[in-house]
Amino acid sequence: MATAPAEATAQGNGAAPPARELIDTDVHERALLEDLLPYLEPQWQRYITHYGWVPDRALPYSQPTAGGLDRADAKPGDGRPGGSDLGLLQRQLLDEFNVTHAILTGWLNASAMQEGWVEFKTALMSAYNDWLVEHWLERDERLYGSVQVNSWDAEAAAREIERLAEHPRIVQVMLYSGYEAFGAPRYHPIFEAAERHGLVVGIHHSENSPTALGRHRYFAEWHTLVPQVFMSQTVSLIFNGVFDRYPDLRVIMIEGGFSYVPHLMWHADQQYKELRHEVPWVKRLPSRIIREQVRFATQPIEEFTAAQLETLIGQMESDELVCFSSDYPHWDFDSPEESLPAGLNQDLARKIFSENARAIYRRLPAPEAARVEGVAA
Amino acid sequence: MTAGNGGGAGTTVDVGPAAELEPGQMVPAQLGDLPVVVIRDGEGELHAYVDRCLHQGARLSDGRMVPCVDGAVVGDYREVEGPALKCPWHGYEYDVKTGCVSFDPRRRLRKVAVAETDGRIVIARRKEDLPAAAPTGAAG
What we know:
The structure holds two protein chains of two kinds. Chain A is α/β, with parallel strands linked by helices. Chain A has 13 helices and eight strands. Chains A and B meet through helix 10 of A and strand 5 of B.
């Protein structure tokens, strides 16, 4: 690893992103439910227009911030939430920070909800995906999309992946984490379909993600403990043999940070060495599986010094596991110019800002073909 | 069956009657200051190793001989050629034929020379110290 520190930003607070390519692996676009009605058959429209369906939500508090879930300045000002306005997203993220590739991770994902009305939710995911393609992917070439699926019907989810995989700027399958660990065999058709099409599987937490002890009394507690659910999902995928069964699969854990990763590697390796007979279908040490097949988006990154971050990366024994994410437009957004510490090793910064994501999002166009100019909506 | 007596370099130790160690069984022994575990595998071949787990040093002879389990996909448990020697503490498993730990074939127990002679099991630090007849294991 070279030792040259990355250039500081103009503000002097963080390592500057590279000028050539910046890949943001967590950008939230958002539909209103009424936006999806034209994409639903009448029988499913009625679930919204007549039966009053809204996404079920387990979180016992709202987000006690200036703008609720969103950055206060990311709301369009007409009552719509952050992420619902393409022009604003272009100005505040793509143009301001010269993001060359933004991986859209969505908002509405039935995998994080309870199982009820499973057929409706499967149809709703299809509607969302059609809306995504028409209103986002076809309006700015810097945007890349995720297939939202209903994991409660994994066979239908696999069919939805097949349907959307034809679109050249679909690069990911999205699972939001709610009540279940995704390593269970019932979910394997989703991973099989993703692997077959070279799509990354992104796992994101949600307001329905519990902690080990439920949701606690205060939002600050729940939000502190968000990484727990990513540890659960990572362990579940490893020990249920998902990565052994689908060796070309790549999974990225989004919005849980990554500082837990060395602990998880060490602890899972220890359990594997001692209890391997219980999971004989796992053929590699968990730390090796993680290094070969799992990546972690940065946000919400802790406020590291360069030395602290480099030590943490060293403990992972790989500088290829971490990919930059901003989580725009949410209130805990990480600025590309501020989130990595000033003085960080320049090679490491370049890997985090672009190369590591490029290595797993194999459907992204080659760098020389990538277009960096936006196309106005 | 009882453990053999002490013995240093150039000497052998009589571990006991060969007939009393059946396939899939093990017995502790002492070769001078060296603790040894003698194992008869499923095919009847003898193996001897230093009786100390590579992990935290537990006496492997206090552990268990267990079936080797393999599987291709989640939920698939198949007993395969074995048995394996399982450490009494944290459960590290060793291939009794090679002494390799199950999760890393680069790490293996140190072998001790063992032979079956005149109905007795004999161990030594070096293969050349064993009686000429029928050595069934070699020090690595």
